[in-house]
Design goal:
It contains three helices and eleven strands. The chain has 165 residues and is α+β, with helices and mostly antiparallel strands. The protein has two domains: 3-71, no CATH class; 74-164, RNA polymerase II/Efflux pump adaptor protein, barrel-sandwich hybrid domain (OB fold (Dihydrolipoamide Acetyltransferase, E2P)), CATH 2.40.50.100.
Length: 165
Amino acid sequence: MKQQDIDDLKQLIEFLKQYQVAEFDLDRGDLKIRLKFAQEHSPSANLGELVRMMQSATSAHATTAAAPAASAGTPAAAPKEAEEENLHVVKSPIVGTFYGSPSPGAPSFVSAGDVVEKGQVICIVEAMKLMNEIESDASGEIVKCLVSNGQPIEFGQALFTIRTA
């Protein structure tokens, strides 16, 4: 990768961060770049680390470069506390953006300590400009919301823990 390309990539990264873009994909011939920025509360690599990663990928003739990934966005396993306390975990049925209330400034659908019934709307996930109401798949008390408002979420990612009755 040429120095000019690296400088252009730095400018692109700064632009994406300025406008709080969570993910970005670029595919031009044999060059493929996927940037996925960490959430504010997650540790992230600085630009120098990103440049070093890209240069090492270029020297190995790799065609993919990646930016820091959000550690909170992995749907791998349910939280350990859910397993220890026998809590039910509500997982996202789709990829999208999490919203805890029906509109900005409105009260949340649910919060910790609320009792919910199976089928009750507990959040919204926006996917492709469609607002999808997510319903609780168990009755009980909301113990914890595991994601923050406006956070990108993945299929199968844990959203809430519920202590079943």
